[in-house]
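Ticket #4471: structure output looks truncated?

Reporter: J.K.
Steps to reproduce: submitted the chain below (275 residues) through the standard prediction queue, then opened the result file.
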Amino acid sequence: MELWYTEKQTEKFGITAKVKQTLHTEQTDFQRLDMIETEEFGNMLVLDGMVMTTEKDEFVYHEMVAHVPLFTHPNPKHVLVVGGGDGGVIREVLKHPSVEKAVLVEIDGKVIEYSKKYLPSIAGALDDPRVEVKVDDGFMHIAKSEDAYDVIMVDSTEPVGPAVKLFEKGFYEGISKALKEDGVFVAQTDNPWFKADLISKVYRDVKEIFPITRLYTANIPTYPSGLWTFTIASKKYDPLTVKEDRFHEIDTKYYTEELHTASFALPKFVRDLIK
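Returned output as attached by the reporter:
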C-alpha cells in the first residue's frame, strides 16, 4: 500500500508527496507538528498541515532570506531571526564573518527539538557559540527591543495561528525601532498566485515605514505555487546598489552575486501587486 502526504494549498489545489514513514507527530502548545520522510524530498517538517521545509529544497529559502539582506548591509554584526526554529536561516547567517551574534527567537521549542533530531543538516548550527536561542514570542521580543540589531529576518509560517500578528503593520513599526539607524529587515511574504492581496498589503505597510522597500522572488518547489516572495526594507541601504567589493565567496547552492540583483526583476503580474 502506498502512503502519500497532501498539502491542500488552497481549497481547490494542493501538492502531494509519497511517504516512506512518519517520524514524529505531536500537537504542541501552538500547532500540529509532523515530521515525515518522503521519497522525493527527504525528511519534511509540516506545521498545521503546511510544508515548512524539506531536506531537498530547503537551501533556496534559507539562502535567499539570509544572504540578500546580509550582503545589502555593509557590516552586519548583530542579527535577529524571528521564527526559523528549524535553524536553516541561522546556518546561512553564520557564513558571514562579520556576524558576531545571531539571536533566534522561536515561539515553539518543539520545532527546535525535532529539527535537531530529524533535520541535522539544517539545524546543526544552532549550537554554534555565536548563536543565542530563545524560546519566546517573537512579536514581544521585537516590542521590547530598541536600536539593537543590524539585520532582522522574519522567518515565519504563513499568516495563520501564532504567526498572524507577524504580518501586521504594528509589527513592522516595532521592527523599525528594534533596528539600528541603518538597519535592514526582510520577511517572507508568501506567493503571488494565491496570496496576492497579502503581498500588496505587506508591501504597502512596510513602504509607509521604511524609505527603501523592495520585493524579490525565488523558486521553491514545495511551497504553494513554487514562486515565493520576500519583502526587504531598509532605512539606508538599497539592495540594488550594493557595491561589487561587498560580495565575498560563500558556500551556496542557489544564491549568487548575479542572482542577488536578478531576483528583484519581477514578472509584470507580480510587479503590478506593489504599484
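Triage note (M.O.): checked the attachment and the full C-alpha cell line is present. The domain at 4-54 is CATH 2.30.140.10 (Spermidine Synthase; Chain: A, domain 2).
Status: closed, working as intended.
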